[in-house]
Structures are given as structure tokens and as C-alpha cells.
Amino acid sequence: MGRGMKAAAASVCLALLILYTGVSTEWSFTFSEVPGFMRYDMLAEALLAGQLHLKQPVDPGRLSAPDPLNPLAPYPFMFDALIWNGKYYFQHEPLPAVFHAIWIKLTGFPCRTGAMVILGAMGTLLCLGVLLLRIREVFFPDSPWWLLWFVWLTFALSGLQLYMVKRPVVYHEATALGMFFVSAGFTSFVYGITGGHRAFRLFALAGVLFGAAVACRPSLVFYPFITASCYLVSLIVRRELGRRSLSQLVIFSVPVCLAVGLLLGYNYMRFGSFFDFGREHLIFPNTSMYLYLTVDNGFFRSAHVTYHLHHYLFAWPKVAGGFPFLFHPWTARWIGDVYIMREAVCSIFIMMPVLTLLMFTPLTLRDCRDRARLLTILAICGTSFVAELGFLSFHVCAAPRYIYDFVPVLFVVVFCNVAVLWPRVAEHRTARIATVAGLGLLFALNGFAALTWALAVIS
What we know:
There is one protein chain. By secondary structure, this protein is mainly alpha-helical. The protein has one domain (3-61, 95-456). The chain contains 19 helices and seven strands. The protein has helices at residues 3-24, 40-48, 60-64, 95-107, 113-139, 145-156, 159-166, 170-193, 199-216, 222-237, 243-271, 287-295, 305-313, 348-351, 361-367, 372-393, 400-403, 410-426, 429-456, and strands at residues 82-84, 87-89, 318-319, 326-327, 330-335, 338-343, 397-398. The protein has a three-stranded mixed beta sheet with strand order 5-6-7. It has a two-stranded antiparallel ribbon with strand order 1-2. A two-stranded antiparallel sheet has the order 3-4. The longest helix is centred in the middle third of the chain and has 29 residues, at 243-271. The two termini are 38 Å apart.
């Protein structure tokens, strides 16, 4: 990448940072917390005081009630907190709170949720850019630069990315930071398998970063597991499994296993059980959620899967009479004994029309069948997408923030698809013009979809 290209990239990144900050702060450029939501600062303050339970006390009347988790008890409570042994605990995983604690200790000021969400989203975007650069450099050096810009900017300006930065709440912080670490870990891994210098250090760094992702969101554990498994299968198929490659896998896996162990230890120190993540101790504001989720532990059920696969892959938004013409419903309903929550979700192909380019994946796989490292990268992306989508479909709620767990890796596949497609049409004027026009239309549709989210969902 030349100096001019680097300057352009820096300018675009700065413009995107300003855009994200404006969207997050409603153009005041002053971060403030959303009332009524838990904040990682609460856990950070507890950690700085040398404890795992929050410093906020539980109302004495609620503690004396037969079930302190029952929302019908006439006593105040903190929504989305955990109550265990008479104390409040934080629901989400602890690593982001460590960053908050460091900031508070160094500056004495609160660490704002919105700023951390933007940090995670920008980090994910930058890692995706670096990853696409590496894939272009190694596998598609003759592809035009504008193809890379096209894919990267469609993600940068997608409805999903704007949705994440718009809502400065704890759920988005955990998700954005988790995907930043996944993206950084995957980028380090790709550099390691494509001949990057100091491969062992790159594998170790990838393991540390994937481990950090798990410490933000346990469901992201599929990424390092699938990455190591796909790489191992590739080595076996190519008959390249040896002492060096096994050492790389070990040095990659150790930090991930350590992070998982620390997370399970964190659970044990709070609740006396390694596998108790606190779901059964959550307090909800209404009786239906309390009975279904807390009493009956209905967070993850196979009965949710078919409904949420439909929501994520096929559901349409509702059509409105005026601009912006689309409405994304927030609904909760009973279907027999199954409770289904849909939080402004529609098909990812409507939310981000550029993902329709995934239809060209068979062409890419056929074209790249003799490029084992690229096939390994594509296999990791595809398998991770399926695993994360499948797992999250078991959850009671389909939500846009969960889409952030499995969609960013698909943009790697999209770039490979257009990079393979371009040489096939570049020599034919009509085909080339049609392709450029089609990509331009997709870019416009992607922008329109993002606008409908900005106006009809996150306003």
C-alpha cells in the first residue's frame, strides 16, 4: 500500500470515528450513560475494592422476601443484575471491567460505555481492513484496490455497525469488544499461516486475543476451537503435520485454555460452581420472563432454533407507509409453551444486501481448490458462522447484537468472492460494466438498509 493510499485510509478512518461518535452521542459528542442499565464501571469499582460482588446493596425488603428474584415483590431492584447470597453480582463476563478499572485507577474518571462500544466497533473494522489487505496481498495481488474498499466500506457503513455504536449499553460493549478480539486474533492467525515473520509469536498472539474474546463473551469460544480444528485438518490433508505445526497449535491453544479456566474459576468464586454463569440468578422486570427464564431456566432451548433461524436468515421487516418505508418490530410472544423474543431483527441479507454476494462462494471454492491456505481461511469463516448462528439460535432472543457475533467474518468470504469473480468479467466490456453497476447497486442498497435502521430502529 502506497503512501497516498495510507493517507486516504487514515482520513476515512477518522471520518468514520467522527460519524460513529456523532451517532452514539446524538451529535452532542459528549458521552453519557443510558439510565436504567448496568454498567461495567460497577464491576470495575468492585474489583478495585477487592471484591467480586457489586458495591450497590440489595434492598433489605427484597432480601427478606421468599424469592428475592420475583419482580412482583414490592421492593426496588437493579434490572439485569444477579442476586446471590444477599449480594448483587454483574451478569456479563469480567474482562471489559478490567479495562474500566485500569482507566478509573489511572484517571479517576468514569469509563463511559459508549466510548468502549466505539472502541470495540472501530477495532473490529480496522482488523477487518488489515485482514483483507493481507488476503489481497497473498492470494489476489492483481485485484483492483476498489474491490477491497467496496467490501470494507459496506461493513463500515452497514446497519449492523451503526446499530452497535448507536446503543451505548453494556450488552453492546461486551459484544463489540469480544468481536474486536476475535477479529484481531483471526488476523494474527492468518498472518501466521501465510508466511508472516515470527510465526510462533503470531500464533501465541492469536491465542491470547482469542482468549480475551472468550473472557468478554463465552459463546465466542467457537472461534478458536474451529480455527485450530480447521488448521489441523488442513495440515493432515496436506500431510504437513509435524513437530513445528503441532508446536504452533499448542502455543495457540494454551492461552485460550487458560482464559477458559480463569473464566470458569471466576464463576466458581462467585457461585460455587464452575459452570454457573449466573443465568438462574437474574432479576427481570416482568413475570413472564421471570417464570420462563429464571424459574424454568429457559434461556437456551432447542424449541427456539427454527424460529430464530427464520428471523436471522429469512424474516422480512414490516413495510411502513412513509419514509423510511421499513419497520423492524420488537416482539415477544408465546407459541405454545415456547417464549420467543424478536428484537428488531430481520434477515441478514436484507439488513446487509452485500451479503447476497455469498452466492458466488462455490465459484471461489472451485477456483481456489489448489490454494490450501485460502481454503483453510474460508473454512474457518464458514464453519464459525454456522456454529455461532446455530448456537445463538438456541437463545430465547434473536437480537441484532448477536448478529455481530457471526456476520463480520462473512465479509472475508465476500471479498474473496468478488476478487475471484473480477478476472472473469474484466476482459469483457459488457460483463465488466454490468458487474460494476451491480456492485454499485448493492452498495446503494446497503446504504439504504443502514438508513432504515438508523431512522426506524435506533432513533
